[in-house]
Amino acid sequence: MTIKTGNLQKWLFTLLVLCLGCNTQADDSRDMAAQIAAMEKFSFLEGHWQGEVTMHLADGSTSNHRSTDTISYLNNGTLLMIIGRKWAPGATANAPPVSEHTALINYDERVDRYDLRSYFSGDFASGVVEHVDQDGARWMIEAGGVQMRFHILNDGPDSWQEKAEMSTDGGKTWTPTMDISFVRGS
Fold first, then answer.
1. Which of 25, 28, 103, 106 matches a 20 to 30 Å C-alpha distance to 121?
2. Which pLDDT belongs to residue 90?
3. What is the 3-state secondary structure (H, E, C) of the chain?
4. How many CA atoms are closer than 13 Å to the CA of 37, on its beta-carbon side?
5. Alpha-carbon gap, residue 39 to 109, rounded angstroms
6. Residue 96 scores a pLDDT above 60
7. What's the whole-model pTM score?
8. In angstroms, rounded to a whole number, what is the distance separating the alpha carbons of residues 151 and 101?
């Protein structure tokens, strides 16, 4: 069989489109309604938040910072994105933040588990959400032999608190690292 160059290009392009189409179709085995329902448990966090952070330092002292979190749903409600920024004490409104993080949470209905991926300081860590309901949430991240545990306490429609702890001995002991009180921002 002889194929002219122009026809070969059309044939290869058609084959490529067909193959890409096969690989990009939705996975019908996933229960999107179950994912969305599970993710709605985080709805109390949705919005723009402003807060004061108290960092607990290794020497026993504390440091206070201004912080914001912007929390929103993506992908038709199946993914929660948290973007957090923290500013140095006394920083002006135009100052760049001293730290930023982004976290993504999704629910895998096949194994009944919330997964979390957090990106910070040019690195990332994976974790799991251990609990979520209308009163709050708790998640755990592990990176480099250090476990971080975060407790979210829902104070009502316009405020919530976050407390973070760290363990370097496999969870035998926990040390407070951060307390944040958030209020709904504009």
1. 106
2. 85
3. CCCCHHHHHHHHHHHHHHHHHHHHCCCCCCCHHHHHHHHHHHHHHCEEEEEEEEEECCCCCEEEEEEEEEEEEEHHHCEEEEEEEEECCCCCCCCCCCEEEEEEEEEECCCCEEEEEEEECCEEEEEEEEEEECCEEEEEEEECCEEEEEEEEEEECCEEEEEEEEECCCCCCCEEEEEEEEEECC
4. 6
5. 11
6. yes
7. 0.81
8. 17
Mean pLDDT calculated for residue range 104-133: 93
Nearest to 43 by CA among 117, 126, 118, 136: 136
Q: How many residues does the chain have?
A: 186
Residue whose token pair is 């923290």: 86
Read off the pLDDT band of 15 (50, 70, 90). very low
Amino acid at residue number 68: T
For the chain, give the mean pLDDT. 87
The domains of the chain are located at 31-184
Round to whole Å and give the CA distance between 137 and 80: 13
Q: Over 60: is that where the pLDDT of 12 sits?
A: no
Pick the CATH number of 31-184 from 2.40.128.20, 2.60.200.40, 3.40.50.2300, 3.40.50.2020: 2.40.128.20
Q: Which amino acid is at 166?
A: M
